[in-house]
Specification:
The protein is an alpha+beta fold. The protein has three helices and six strands; from the N terminus they run βββααββαβ. The protein has one domain: Alpha-Beta Plaits, CATH 3.30.70. Helices cover 18% and strands 37% of the residues. A hairpin with a 2-residue loop joins strand 2 and strand 3.
């Protein structure tokens, strides 16, 4: 089979939350078979590019292979956090959708 391009939301789910000015996004593959492709392509650098408009100062990825999941931590993307931000989403709950729009290649 040849590779095909998909958006992450087609193969994974995500949930985001906040701690101060830090955003956490859990990304969970629906099929563990996609874990390796996601691990290769959804790097901290790629996530930083996806969130470039929010100017993250640091992106860290934690791998959870037994869960076919990842946790991304992005610093300084919530405009100061829920108590300081004038943004509509100071908690960052909707920001997982930015991550889920990343395109990757999978076999199939």
């Amino acid at each position: 089979m040849s590779p095909r391009t998909v958006l992450l939301h087609e193969i994974a789910g995500a949930r985001s939350g906040d701690k101060g000015n830090r955003l956490n996004i859990a990304l969970v593959c629906r099929d563990p078979a996609h874990y390796a492709a996601v691990a290769r392509q959804v790097t901290p650098e790629r996530v930083a590019q996806a969130f470039a408009g929010r100017k993250p100062t640091r992106v860290v990825r934690y791998d959870l292979p037994k869960l076919a999941a990842f946790n991304f931590v992005l610093d300084d993307v919530l405009e100061g956090g829920v108590n300081a931000s004038l943004g509509l989403d100071g908690h960052g709950k909707s920001l997982s959708f930015v991550l889920l729009e990343i395109a990757i290649e999978i076999e199939g």
